[in-house]
Amino acid sequence: MAAQAHLTRRKAPMQHLVCGFTSPAAIEQHGPMVIVKGRGAYVWDAAGRKYLDGLASLWNVAVGHGRTEIALAIARQARAIAYAPTLMGFASEPAQRLAARIAALAPKGLTRVIFTSGGSEANESVIRLVRLYWRLQEHPHKIKIVALNRGYHGSSTGAASLTGLPQFHKYYEPLLAGVVRMARPFCYRCELGLTYPGCGLACADELERLIEREGGETVGAFIAEPVQGVGGVIVPPPGYFERIRAICDRHEVLMVADEVITGFGRLGRRFGIERWKAVPDMIVFAKGVTSGYIPLGGVILHERIYRALVDAGEDFALYHGFTYSGHPVACAAGLVNLDIIQREGLIGRTRKLAPYFKRRLKTLARHAMVGEIRAAGLMGALELVADRRTKEPFAATLNVPVRIRKAALERGVIVRASAETIVVCPPLIITQAQIDYLVSVLDEAIGTVAGELSR
Prior knowledge:
This protein is of the alpha/beta class.
C-alpha cells in the first residue's frame, strides 16, 4: 500500500511551487500529491487513484466537488465584468446581492458585510475594525483582543498573532502586541484543572478576570471559533457563549465569532454560533461561502458598528480594504453556492445526519489509543492517547496522528492530523454509506498503527 501511495506523488523535474503547512524538505524529496479531478465527495490524483475527501479539502468544499453550475456562474461573470473594486465607491451587482444574502442569513442585528479574499484577511480586518470602532467611540486604548489557547484565526502576521498554536509563532516572532490568551472550553483536558459541570463554566469566567487584570479600558474584543477546528474540534459546553456574551456586555468588549470553518451549515446551522443564544458583534466568514471554488471571505458587522462609521461624517474615510474585496467573479460563485445549499437543504440535512456521523465515529472507541471522540455537525475528532486512564498523549517523536493519517491516505481516505488528534470534516453532501467507509478505513488505519507500536 505504501509503495502504491508513493506512486501517486509526482515530482516535476523542476519544482517551483512552494506548499504551506508541510515540510519543504519532504516535498523536495517526494513531491506533492497532485489532485486533478473531483466529483461529489471524491477527488482523484494524477495517477488516477480515487480518495474519499474526509476533510472537504480544507474544511471548505461544502457542496462537494465538480458542481457545474458554480463553474458556469464563474464563466458568465468573467465574461460580463471580471473585476470591479469595492474600494473608492465602486461596487458590482454580485457583490451587492451576496452581501444582502449573507446579511439575511446572519443573526439579528448583523447587517453589513466587508468582503476579503479569505479568512486570514478577514481576521486582519477584525483587528483594524476593533481599533477603529473604539477610537470613534473615544476609547483609543481599547486595542487588546482576547483569544483562546489553540484557536486558529489565520497565518498572516496579525491573524497568526490571534492564532494560539505554537507552530505558527516559532520563527515568526515578535507577534502583534495586544493579544491576550485565555483557557479554552476543553472539558477533556481542562486547562484550569477542573471538571464539568461542577466547574460552573470557570473557563468562561476567566474572561472577566482577565479583563479586570488587563484593565477594561484596554480590552477591545474577544474572538473565538464556535467550535475550534484546527485546535481539535473542541465543542464548548452549554451556556459557554451566553456567559461570554454577558461578560462582554458588562465590560463594553466586542464579541467576535470566527465562523471561517463553522459558517454556512457545517454545524447544522446557518452560523455555528446559533447553537448558543449569543449574538456576536462581528462574524468572520470564508471557506463555505463559495465551497472553495474561488477565494472569498469577509466580516459581517452589527449595525451598531456600521452606524459608528456613518456617524463619523463625510470627512471620515474607511481606509481599509483589499484589491480583491467583493470580487465580482467570487461573489457570483458565492451566490450559486448558497443557492445549492438552500435548494438541497444541506443545512437541515447536516443537522439530521450529524447524530449518525457521531455514532459511527464513536465505534472507534474500541481502540485503546482513542481517548475521546468529539463531534459537532459534520466536524469530528479522535483524541489519541498513550494511556486512556491518565490521558497521557503519545510522545511527539512517535508521530502517531501523522502515521494514522498516512495509513488512511494509503487506503483512499483523506483526513487531517492535528496535534494529538485525527480530524474529519467531510463535504455536507456525504452519504451514510460514505461515512461508513470513512470510519471503516480509520478503523483499519488505527489498528495498523497500534500494531506497529506494540512490536
